[in-house]
Every structure is written in C-alpha cells, then in structure tokens.
Fold these 2 entries.
Entry 1:
Amino acid sequence: MFLPPVSALILINLPFISLISALNDNLTGPGLAWPNKLWVPMGGFTSPGTIISSYYNWDSNPLIPSIKDLSNSIIWEIPFPFIPMLWGCNETYIKPFQKNLLKNFNNILLTSKKEILGFNEPDHPQQSFCEPKQAALIWKEILEPLKLKGFRLGSPAVTNGEIGKKRFKDWFDACKGECNPDFLALHWYDIIPQNFIEHIEYYHNEYNLPIWITEYAPQNFSVYNSETGQYDGQATYIEVQRFMDITTAYMKSVDWVERWFWFGAMYDMQGVNELDCLFDAGGKPNRTGALNELGVQYAGSNGSVTIQNSMSSGTEDTTSRASGKTKLYLIGITCCLIITEYLIEQLK
Ligand SMILES: *[C@@H]1O[C@H](CO)[C@@H](O)[C@H](O)[C@H]1NC(C)=O
Ligand SMILES: *[C@@H]1O[C@H](CO)[C@@H](O)[C@H](O)[C@H]1NC(C)=O
Ligand SMILES: *[C@@H]1O[C@H](CO)[C@@H](O)[C@H](O)[C@H]1NC(C)=O
Ligand SMILES: *[C@@H]1O[C@H](CO)[C@@H](O)[C@H](O)[C@H]1NC(C)=O
Ligand SMILES: *[C@@H]1O[C@H](CO)[C@@H](O)[C@H](O)[C@H]1NC(C)=O
C-alpha cells in the first residue's frame, strides 16, 4: 500500500489554487470560453484594466496550472471564477460531472452565485445532440436538484436558427415545468449585429429569463466553398470590431444580459473566422497569450504579458502577487504533508 506520487501532486495543488483571490469576482460581463487546457496562458487577459470576470472550459473539471508553470511565470495564473458545465446527456459526461461536483470542483473559486452550465448544443449532431426527452430527464435528475444546494443553473445552449429554437422549446415542453434554469445560455454565429440583438431579445421575451451568450462571434456559416475549404462571405477586421462594439454596447444597455463569451480566446479558431481571434498572432509560436487589438477591446486589459524570468524589475503589483504566492506554496505543501501523514496513518 502506497501513495502514488501523482496524488501528492494533486494534494499540493488544491489548497494552493483555492486560496488565490479572484480578479473581478463580483462582476458580470465578458468572460472567457477557454478551450485550451493549459496550452495557452491567460496572462494577456489578466493584465491591468481587465474586466474579464469568469471563465468556463466546456467541462466540469477546472484547469489547474502546475506548480512548475506557476513558478515560471504569473502569466499561467487563472485568477477568474470558474463555471462548470455538464456538457452532454449520457454517462460519458454525467459520471465525471458528478465526480467533480462531489470534489466541490477541486475547491476552485466559482462565481459568487455558484453558476453551472447545462448541455452544449443538444440540437447539433456533432455536439451533445440529446433528444429533448433525454435532456429533460437528465436535467431533472442531475441538474435541477442542485438548485436546492445553492447553485444557479444555465439552460442547455442551443445554436442560433430555427432548429435551435424548436429543440429548445421541445426540451422545455418535455420537462413539463420541472426544469427551471435560472438563465438561458445561447450560442450565436452570423455577421449582422442587429440579428444578434433580435435573437437574444427573442429568447428573453419568450422565456422571461436573463441571458448569457456562452459562444458568439461574427461567422457566416451559410455557403461552404469546397475549393477554399472555408465558408464564403466573412466579415472584415473592421466589421468584426464594429460587431463587437455594437453587440457589447447593447448587452451593457439592458439589465437582462449577464455574461457573454466571445469565440475565441484561442489560437486555433476551429473553423471560425481567424479574424475573431483575441490573441496577437506574433505570440503564437511561443504561446505567450498576449492580446491583439480585438482582445484588448474585449477584455479591457492592456493585453501585454511579461514572462517573469525576463523581467528586470517587477512592478509593485507583480511583486506582491509573487510573494503572496510563496506563502501559498508553503501553506499548500504543509497541507499536503498533513494529509499525506493522515493517509499513511489510515493505511497502516
Ligand atoms: C464580493 O462580494 C462579497 C459578498 O458580497 C464580498 O464579501 C467581497 O468583499 C466582494 N469582493 C470584492 C472584491 O468586492
Ligand atoms: C454519449 O454521447 C456521445 C455523443 O454526444 C457519444 O460520443 C458517446 O459514445 C455516448 N456515450 C454513451 C455511454 O452512450
Ligand atoms: C454570407 O455569405 C454568403 C456567401 O458569400 C452571402 O451570400 C451572404 O450575403 C453572407 N451573409 C451576410 C449576412 O452577409
Ligand atoms: C520564442 O522563444 C525563443 C526562446 O526564448 C526565442 O528565441 C524566440 O525569439 C521566440 N520567438 C518569438 C516569435 O517570440
Ligand atoms: C501593461 O501593463 C504592464 C504592467 O503595468 C506594463 O508593464 C506594460 O508595459 C503595459 N503594456 C502596454 C502595452 O501598455
């Protein structure tokens, strides 16, 4: 009987992360849809002025940077509250979700209202694709009871378009009043800002609930061109910026849009217009996570990242965070030793 070294590492990680105080933890507004695992640091989004206030990663398992990454540079810190998601409607997704729920999501900081997101695009064959009945059943069984535990729930997120509208209504009807999301999560891809506005107004008016847009970006999916391997008729960079301006101004102007998540905070845009990328392309080879103009517009931060090792003298802010970090390491390691000792006692 022995403790594998892997568990020891995890034990070090948990208390360490949970003690970092979050940036903007009481704000709503722009967040990060963050698909990158630990492949890209969040540094550009955490730089001075940031209004980013949450992130989700299409999963219930929060990302925890390794001690090694963190000791190399603060650009690896993930200082925003986490929003877990139950991605799909079958055991493949339910089991890990319940496991992470039981572990209290590794004690990572959640949003102050403890928000959780439901199924990802249940109307899309390449996404979670759940029959409305199944989605209703799993919602009632797994998600709805979490309201009593103080969680606030986001609806399944359907794609924009008539199929999404119908799927959403079919799910809602199949629930027979027993699915009570606290807000609606929506996805939207197209290029005319006014259509975006009308789309979210439709859902708000139809269901009388607050709205989150958990994926959106200017992307025209109407005509696939097999010669270029791309969709035709995309927005230009100016149009992308204008789209962000108009939609952001609108979302801020109404009190029923709570959070929004641009696609994408990622280097690989997964088939969506490359011009929607929030990162500076110059940082791609070394994955610095520095932001471009659009990223700065979205996040409000200055978007720059400084690799700690190459920094001649830290700013006040960086220094205090770094020394705070050292203290947290010690707490983390102490906790680890205590837990290890305890476990060894139990195994004897
Ligand atoms: C956020 O809200 C909580 C509860 O209202 C409060 O205790 C905390 O100080 C607030 N944090 C900030 C940074 O304002
Ligand atoms: C669950 O659904 C996904 C598709 O969303 C599928 O790939 C997977 O095989 C399913 N798992 C089970 C256990 O049915
Ligand atoms: C999307 O692209 C198609 C094909 O180029 C074009 O006909 C259509 O007008 C575009 N959509 C918008 C809203 O501009
Ligand atoms: C990437 O990092 C390497 C090693 O630090 C450096 O030599 C190189 O110039 C960097 N490349 C870019 C594009 O920043
Ligand atoms: C962003 O802020 C940091 C820290 O204050 C500073 O070192 C850096 O020069 C700023 N970058 C830009 C592009 O203004």
Entry 2:
Amino acid sequence: MRPASLLAGLSAAAVSASWPEHPGAADSPGFATSYTARVPIKPSNESARANAFRIFNAIHSAGRQWGTAIYHNGFSFMPAIMPKGTITYHGAPDKDPPTGFEWLAYEIEHAENFARSEKHPHWPPPPPWKGEEASFQKPLQPLGPSHTGAQEDTTSSISEGQTRRGYLQTYQANRDLHLLLIDGMSAAKTSMGTLDSQDLLLRENKTFRSGIWDEWQRAEDICSMIADWGYDGFIRDEIGFEVVYCDFSQGLDLISSTRSFFQEDKMGDWSLVLWQWVRAAGDRYDGISNDRVRIDLSSMVSGFFFPINISSTIPERPDLERLGAASLEELVDIKHYLAQVAKQPRRFTVDWQGAVVDLIVNRYADRIAHMATEDISTDHFIQELEGIALGYINAPDEDDDSETGGAYNKANETMVAVHRCTQHYLHRSYASRSEWSASDELIHTAISSIMEGICSTVFIMRSMLLQASGRTESTAFYINRKSDSDEMRRAVELSKAMTRNMVEKLGWADWKRTRPCPIDEVLFVAMWPFGNSDDHWNPGCRTIDDLASGMRMGYWFMDRPPPPP
Ligand SMILES: *[C@@H]1O[C@H](CO)[C@@H](O)[C@H](O)[C@H]1NC(C)=O
Ligand SMILES: *[C@@H]1O[C@H](CO)[C@@H](O)[C@H](O)[C@H]1NC(C)=O
Ligand SMILES: *[C@@H]1O[C@H](CO)[C@@H](O)[C@H](O)[C@H]1NC(C)=O
Ligand SMILES: *[C@@H]1O[C@H](CO)[C@@H](O)[C@H](O)[C@H]1NC(C)=O
C-alpha cells in the first residue's frame, strides 16, 4: 500500500486546516422573508475571504490576455486610465472618424480584421442607421463573428459589382482617458457567463431579443450609464483587448487613416491572418502594459466582495462560476455600489497587481509546481521547502543548540515565522495603509488569507518533516534528510499531497502555460560571475546537476581564473 493512502485521513485534515472555506452560496444571506424590507447587500470581509482565490486570480489577470482567457467569466470592474498619448486602432468602412461610440482595438491585427476591403463582399454594406441589427465592421467569415455584429445576415445579399473599402484608423489619446475595465473575456458573445457583468449587472437583464448579439444596444446602454459617471468608455477582452469608446468627437486625435488593399491585390492568401492575430494577442498574455492602461485596483468592485451565489448554472460545467446565479436584485445592489465607487476620483493607492500579487506568484509558483511533481526526490523536495521556510526563521544560536537546550522556543519561533511569511509581501501595501479605500481593505483581506494558507501549509510541512526526522535535541531544529525511516517517507508523501492540494486551490493561470524549460530546469544565460562560454553563446535550459557544483564559471574569467573563495 502506498504511504499516501495510509495517510489519506490525516492528509485531509491537515491540508484543509489553513485554507479559506470554499465559498458558497450556502452562506449567502439573501433575504430571509419576502415581507421584511429589503436591505441592499454590502461588500464584506467574509465574502472576500471566501473568494480569496478568485480575487487573487482576478487581480493577477487584470489587463492580461492569458489569465483573462483562462478565467473568462468576469466578476469585477476596475476603473482605469488610458494615458494621454496612447495609440489605438479602429477598422472602419469610412476614412473619417465615426460619430458617437465605436470600437477601438489595442492591437493592429485586431482592428485590421474590421478594415478589410472587399471586391465581392459577402455581407451588405453598412446600413445608414445604427440600430439593433447594425452590422458594421463585420469581419470575413473564416475569422469568426464580429465584435459589433448582429446575427448572420442570411436574408440579405449584396448586389453584384458593389465593392466595399475598409480603413485602418489610428488614434492617439489627447488626454488621459477614463475607462472602466470589465474583467474576464467580457467581449465574448457567449451564454457561458462572459456577458453576465454587462447584461445582468450593468443592464439589469434588459437585453434586446438578439440576446448575446445585442452588441450595439449593449454599447449604447453602458456608454450612456458610464458617461454619467465621468467615463469615456469601457475596456473588454476577446482575442485582444478593446475599448468601446463612447464619443469619438473628443479625447482622441486621428493620426492616420489608410485604405486597405483588396484581397486580389495582395500576394498573401488568408493562411497567415489568424496566426498573426493570435501572435499579436499572445504578445499580451502578460499584459497590455501599464503604459497603455493603468488599472486602479484601489477602486476595484467585484461580485466576489459580496455575499452572493456564484455557482455555475450549467450542470455540465460546474467550473463556470458566474454572476448569473445571483438574484437580479443583488446584482442591482452591486451596480449601485459600483456607481458610487466609480464616480470617485482615481486612487491608485496600492498597485496590488505589480507590487504584491506578482511578487507572490514569482516567488511561489515555480517552487510549488516543482514540489508538486510526482517524481521529485525527497532531497530536492526538502531543499525547496527549506528555501521558502528558513528565511523567515531566526535560527538557534550555538547555546540554544546544545544538549541542555537554551532559551530558544521552537514553537514560538514557528509562529513568528508564519507571521513573517504571511506579512512579507504585504508590507509594501502597508506603506499607504492610512489612505486605503474599502476596496483596498477587501483585497488585503483576500491576499492575507491566501498568504496565511500558503505559509501555514509550508510550516505544517516543515513541522511534519522535523518530527519524522527524529527527536533528539540536536536534530530538534533541523530536518535530517538522511533519515530514511518509513516515518520520513510518509511525511514527505503527505507533504507532497499538501503541495498538490495547494496547486489545485490556488489555480494560478500561469501553471497552464507551456514552460520554456521543464519544471526542474532553469533558463540560464551567463550572468557574472557565473556561466561558461556555452551559457553565453547558447543560453538555454540547465538542469539542477548542471548547476549543482555552484561553480559553473568560465565565461567571465577567460584571462585569469577566479580568485579563491
Ligand atoms: C446557487 O445557484 C445554483 C445555480 O443556479 C443553484 O443550483 C443553487 O441551488 C444555488 N444555491 C443557493 C444556496 O441558493
Ligand atoms: C474589513 O476589515 C477591515 C480591517 O479589519 C476593516 O477596516 C474594514 O472596514 C472591513 N470591511 C468591511 C467591508 O467590512
Ligand atoms: C433575465 O431575463 C430572462 C428573460 O426574461 C429570464 O429568463 C432570466 O431569468 C432573467 N435573469 C435573471 C437573473 O433575472
Ligand atoms: C515569542 O517571540 C516573540 C518575538 O521574539 C516574543 O516577543 C514573545 O514574547 C515570545 N512569546 C513566547 C510565548 O515565548
């Protein structure tokens, strides 16, 4: 029998000890009786804690194509600024700027899809009205449906000989533009939940009969609402980030408008078009950059802050959590709360993404993933664990370490270490604590609870390994990895199970990405003083063994050997 199964019972208890409870729905207060006056739901620390994993991931994915695609059902709104000078693109059937609202893309390839010139278009030219069924900017069929289009125009056909020209318009923001980021893949016209934050929450379920394809009315409704809040438009995501810009007559300078070529006049067929578009969108997996959008997380409002049901409503896809499981009244409460927060001046008090969450993911993601691999050796597992844990522990000095024991209080030191570990990446945010908004408090609650989970798991694992490695005074503070007892092997198996549980709960989107190197290798270029000639001329993946001597050198010391250590 495998040790892991022997420990299954214990494992469950230990593993769940420190993590936030799975949220639910079950603890949603809702409204008890229909005859009591309804009190609007409010954001709460309890909800932030219950949804800690989701809030953490929403912050990590904000404005980033990868995580946004993985967690495509958005629950959050984040006021943002597109800085003055930012360049964006619009594909149009006209050389002149549109009047009123229209779509802007962050990537050229995205806009070009709507700027095609056609000798024999498969759809009618744009109608003179902008109604529910308007079909401006309809891309060619092989490349999927339009972001602004209505349903397929099966009834109409173009008269022979008519051509359609397309224009790629390039704009520059002539002031800082105020935008509302609607997170998740919110430009995806689906019924999976990607539109819940717009159609149910912002629009209160008042959609036209075209449902998910009600794009024109959706843009108009949301534009007129957020114009009152002082916004110029809203940001959404599909294959590329886009802005629904509410009034082209202000805030933007047209810097060029170029007529596109007919397909017949180009060498290329269609074969590279989608591939190039994916490549362009993929360049934004890690973000469209702070220079093009600054996200004010201190003004974030999320459905995850509220005590609502977020279950999936699609039985075959229990993973698809959505706002649509909450009641419409609750969603309207959230909308009213959002309106209050969104109207306030921009804060940018804490950069929760870049200054906190990213540093946590950088430090823990690869380490935890390595520790969670099936075939990691006990030795490597313990060294990775020590690599996280020991920096937070004040080691005993020689007196403490003696047979008689000293003043050193192991249990207390562990408690203090867990606290140091939990707080480590939060200190950055405390620098501005006196200015925190309610959103900052709620985000802090979520991130602290993630860190408490990670750090207590780390130190529970360490305590188990300490115990398993013997109880003599001299080993009391150290994991004796030479110890080859059954007990030790079991403790390691249990620790691995806890690590895998951690991976599952955290659900970091980056773990779904292809790695440049296997998890037990690193991408290495010679960096002084380390690295040999090969590492400079052929940088690449290096194994633990390649670097094990700690003396991989040569490139920087070609004339003379390094001085003795
Ligand atoms: C939450 O929503 C799901 C999906 O609509 C539903 O099946 C479930 O009963 C709801 N839970 C509660 C406690 O209302
Ligand atoms: C959450 O907790 C913090 C710190 O205790 C508190 O300042 C804040 O008001 C709480 N937020 C809510 C919405 O209850
Ligand atoms: C939205 O409206 C549709 C159609 O009227 C209805 O079936 C659905 O239950 C409504 N959704 C909510 C959350 O009220
Ligand atoms: C634990 O350690 C802290 C910091 O060194 C100290 O202030 C505290 O008194 C200790 N508590 C106990 C119970 O030893």
